[in-house]
Each structure stands twice: as structure tokens, then as C-alpha cells.
Amino acid sequence: MNASAGDKIRFSPGRFLYGLTFVVVLPAYLVLWSARLGHLAFPDVPQVPALGQVLVVSGSLILLAGMWAIVKRGDGLPMNAYPPKRYVRDGVYFWLSHPIYLGFCIGCAGVSVLFDSSPGLWVITPIVTLASVALVWGYERPELISRFGDVYFDHWLRLPTASSSPPVLRDFVSVVVLVFLPWLLLYEGVASYIGVVDPVWDSTLPFEENLASYDLAGLPYVLTYPFVGLAPFFARTKRDLREFAVAGLVATAIVIPFYLTLPIIAEFRPLQPTTVWGELLILQQGIDNPATAFPAFHVTWTFLAARLFAARYAHATAIIWGAAWIMALAAWLSGMHAILDIFGAVFVYVVVASYGRVWRAIRGYAEKIANSWHEWRFGPVRIINHGFYAGLAGFAGYVVFAGILGPANLAPSFLISICSIVTAGIWAQVIEGSDKLLRPFGYYGSVIGAIIGALIVERWTGLSSFVSLGAMCVAAPLIQALGRLRCLVQGCCHGAPAPENTGIRVTEPNSRVCHLADLRGASIHPTPLYSIIGNVFIGMVVFRMARVGAPGSAIVGIYLVLSSVARFVEETYRGEPQTPVFGGLKIYQWISIALLLVGSILTMIPSAPVSFDGAATNYMTWIFALIFGLVSGAAMGVDFPDSDKRFTRLT
């Protein structure tokens, strides 16, 4: 896609069509998409005076400023297919690295608010934002870094560097803009605003229901806000401030999706205010929402701030942490949170405050799995241990899939599952098959097989294909996540070379990493691990959609959109030499783009809902699941290594 880098700006049909696509066709499609989602239920658009106008104007100015800077200073066009010759650092690019995408996303939100479009605000804008992030991380960012080096990281607004020097104004402002502001927008503007959609779980324990609330506890509770807000300005080093900022971003990335997809509420306990602190608590209750109770972000931020203060004032560590625990206790005594909310917040703090150690531990475990190849020979037959992961994925996924459809649809669910395995093998054979890969399996082939199976089932039994595929999409993230453990052992879907603090090392000679990619002992991206993390979040979204009875077409569409966004990014960091590349993108990235479009179209189609009302399992469900697990394990873990016939060898 960067073959035209450095070309002089001139008219060409390619440039014209590319520009027309993003300036005219894409906005028009987004408007059409939003208009066709009227069959779905969404929260109302917030009625804030002039909010839409402000967002549209500010987004447009940022976008146009970015375009102008590229044309004026970059000797090129604001198109990633026709990139500029020089890296632009003037104008808005002095402050931001990707103002065009930022402006477009802000503009999408503004237009949605201006025209009171709930689908535009709650579906289109988030997906446009995710797609923009995917395009940056999955193509533009690595491309720019490879062409221009570290200058890419040197915009004014950026996270502090990991150095021992004192922070400067730039670092403080960057933390406020890049960490606090996104958190505030997502917490108050999204999670608290949307609130609770039944059904939910309650974190209030029985003994707490009749406990009194103390308005004097409002004093330490309210003090949390200046305590957290001022903490960055007391950071001792840039490294300390960076750790605070990254921990805050990780906490936001974990907790906000949890609020939106698995809401555990704790209603505020009744309070009769007698002091100004009680009045402030009542004001806080009017702003916050029980859906943002578990875990208590109030406490997580307090502990992160205490850690930052303690690093600066080591002699006062006990006092600082004592104050932090008093603030945490106040969240319970004031009736603002249940005790489980506090414990949940402490757990989140422990995880995010140790994000470096947690990531090293996860990578270490992934590396052990990647080097755990073991096989058993029985005459011409070989059983490889990674087949157990495939069997577990098939077993667990089938239980979820068939459980949602109910015992009456065991045979249809089994047929759809078998179709997905068969076509996964056919697909990978066509795309990646070779004399070294006689029986590979491909994810996109399984998607095609599930569709074929669902259509057969609909014609056979009358079960809506959208309902069966929607149920399959709820199970798919679990299947993918467990299946990626097999990928770690086999070495398929492996990563490209990576920095030491990111990658894993594979030395097992039977792994594809060693015998196919010639990357033995090299630090490579743990891309199966990236896929597992992505599927956890995707699974939370589709589970929540099914839990509230969303149409099957919408579940399938959103699953395809989210999985395509995740796969586009993941593919950039894969290092499989056999993957075809066209026009600067890997074939799976092109497929991701196509399936994102297909997914968006499916969300526009009304269909029957996927409901948990009839979800159940019986002993036959578990028998079918066991059979399917054995089939999956055999297909992906049993072969005939001495044979050269097609489909006989796995590696």
C-alpha cells in the first residue's frame, strides 16, 4: 500500500477513487447504516445544549487541520495508500500523531448527537473508533515507525517516558488529556449514562441491606477527588508517572467493558444527610449509577494515587496508605459501595499496578505452553498433546452452543459444528496447504462452514439460521481462546520478531516456529495470546447481547465486526511465511475488511432474537459435546507422520 510513497501530488484515477471512497462513500454508508438500525433498542442520546455542534465543529477543525498539514508540509496526500514523502511535525501534528482519525471520530459522535441518532452514537461511533485504532495499530503505526523511526513517538501529547528525570509540564498535561479525560468520558459519559439493562447481578451481601449510612464518611470519600487529581503533579520521576498512567489506562480497558457487558450492581444505601458531606454524597448519587459499582473505580484510583504519593514521600508511606484505606472504607460506610465492590477494586489495583509483572508471568506461561510439545506413537498413528486443547475447545464450545439452542436442537447444533471443522480444513488447505502443511486448519473456513451448516439446518428443521449462528457466535470466542492454546504448541498463527519485553522464545524443533519460519530462539510476538485477550472482550460483548435478547443477526454482525477488527491488528504482528500478501496487506487483513462490511450489513437485518429463556443441557448434550470434543481433538491432534498423502500429516 505504500508503493507510491514520495510521488509528487498529481491526479490519478487511483487517488481520485481512494479519496472518493473515504470522503463520500464511507460517510454516506455510515449514515445509511445508522438509519437501518431502527429495529434495535438503544439508550437515548444525551440532551446537552450545543454538544452536537461543538463536537462537529471541533472534529472538523482537527480533521481539516491534519489534512492541510499533510498536503502543505508532507509533500503528499492524506491517504495511507499514497503516503507523504516527509513525516509531518507542524501544525496539529505537533500535538497529535493521528489527528485526521481523531477528528473523524469526534465528528461522528457530533453528527449523531446533532441529529439525535442513538444508533449513530452507540454503535456507529464506537465501531468507527475501533476501526480507526485498528488501522493505526494494524498498518499505519508500524509502517510509519519502519520509515521514520522514533520520531513517530515524539508528539507533544504522549505518555511520559520511562526515565528517572523529573516530569515536566508536557508530562502532566499528557496524563490529564490521555488518561483522565478518556476515563471520565467512558465512565460518566458512557457507562454511568447507559446504566443498567436487566438482567443483572447484585454485589450487596445480605447483611449489608439494612446497614446505616454515615454522612460524615462523605468527607474522606469526597477527598478522593483532589487526592487522585493532584497525584500526577507530585510524581517523583517520569517513570513513576508513566506507571501511574499506564496502570490507569489498563484499569480503564478492563473495568469499563466489564461495566457495560457484565453489570453487577450495588444500589446506594439510603442516606439522610445532616452535613454538607452528606449533601455531596447525595449529589454524587445523582451523577453515578449502580451499574458502575463493581468494582469500585473510586477505590482503584485512590490506591494508584497513594502508590504515586508514596514513591515521592517514602518516609510518609504508612500515613499515605492509611489515608487511602480510610477513603476506601468511607466508600462502604457512606453507602456508596458494597463491600464486594471494595474487594473487587483492590483486586483490579493489584493487577494493574503490577501490569509489568503480570504481563511477564502471562508471557512466561505462554512460552512454557509453546515449548511443551509431546507426542505418543502407536504404530503409524501419532497423538500430539496440542490436540487436547483442540478437544477442550470443541467440548466447551459445543456445550455453550448447544446449551443456548436447547436439548431439542442437539442434532442441528452437532451438524453445524461438524461443518465448521470440515470447511476449516478445506479453507486452510487451499490458502496455506503445502508439502509441509498437509492438514492445516483455518478460522475463516470454520465461519463458512457454520454458515453452510446453519442454512442446511434452517431448511431441515426450520430453526432460524440467524438464531443458530447467533448462538454459535456466543460460543465462538470461548472456542477461539481455548483453541489458541493449541496454536501455541503447534506454532501456527505465530508472531513475527518482537522486542524482548514483549515476545516469547520457542525452541521446540517440532513447532512451526522452528521448522517452517526459521525463528527458533528468537523473541517473537505471542500472537495466539493476543487473540485470546481479544476474544475475552468479544465474548463479553456477544454474551451480553444474547443475555438481553438481541436479534441473532445483530449478534452475528457485531461478532464479525469485532473479530475482524481484532484480526486485522493481530495479523500485522504474525510471522507466518506462507501467508499470501496483496497490495501491502496480508490476505487475512483483506478478509477482515470484507467481513467487517458483511457484519455491518447483517446488523441492519431484523431477525428472531437469541434468547437464554430456553437454554438448558441434559445428559445427551454432554454426550454430544464429548463426541465433538473427541472429533476436534483427533482432527487437530492425531495424524500419520510417515505418510505424504494429503490430510494425513499435521506438520
Structure, explained:
This protein is mainly α. It folds into three domains: 13-153, no CATH class; 169-353, no CATH class; 364-639, no CATH class. It contains 21 helices and nine strands. Helix 4 (118-148) runs parallel beside helix 19, helix 9 (297-312) packs antiparallel against helix 10 and helix 12 (355-370) packs across helix 16. It is globular and about 80 Å long.
Task: List the SSEs and their pairings.
Blueprint lengths: L12 H23 L15 H23 L25 H16 L3 H31 L20 H26 L6 E2 L15 H13 L7 H24 L2 E2 L10 H12 L9 H16 L4 H17 L5 H15 L1 H16 L4 E4 L2 E4 L1 H20 L4 H23 L10 H19 L3 H26 L13 E2 L6 H4 L7 E2 L2 H21 L4 H21 L8 E2 L2 E2 H17 L15 H19 E2 L12
Helix pairs in contact: 1-4, 2-3, 3-4, 4-19, 5-7, 6-8, 6-9, 6-10, 7-9, 7-11, 7-18, 9-10, 9-11, 12-16, 13-14, 13-16, 13-21, 14-15, 14-21, 15-16, 16-18, 16-19, 18-19, 19-20
Short description:
With 651 residues, this protein is mainly α.
Q: How many domains make up the coordinates?
A: 3
Strands side by side in the biggest sheet: 3-4-9
Radius of gyration: 26 Å
Distance between the termini: 33 Å
Instruction: Calculate the mean pLDDT score and round it.
Output: 90
Indicate the low-confidence ranges by residue numbers.
1-7
**Helix/strand/pairing category:** mainly alpha
Outline type: globular
Element-by-element helix/strand order: HHHHHEHHEHHHHHEEHHHHEHEHHEEHHE
What is the number of strand segments? 9
Q: How many DSSP helices?
A: 21
Tell me the strand percentage band: under 5%
The biggest sheet, with number of strands, parallel, antiparallel or mixed sense and barrel status, is:
3 strands, antiparallel
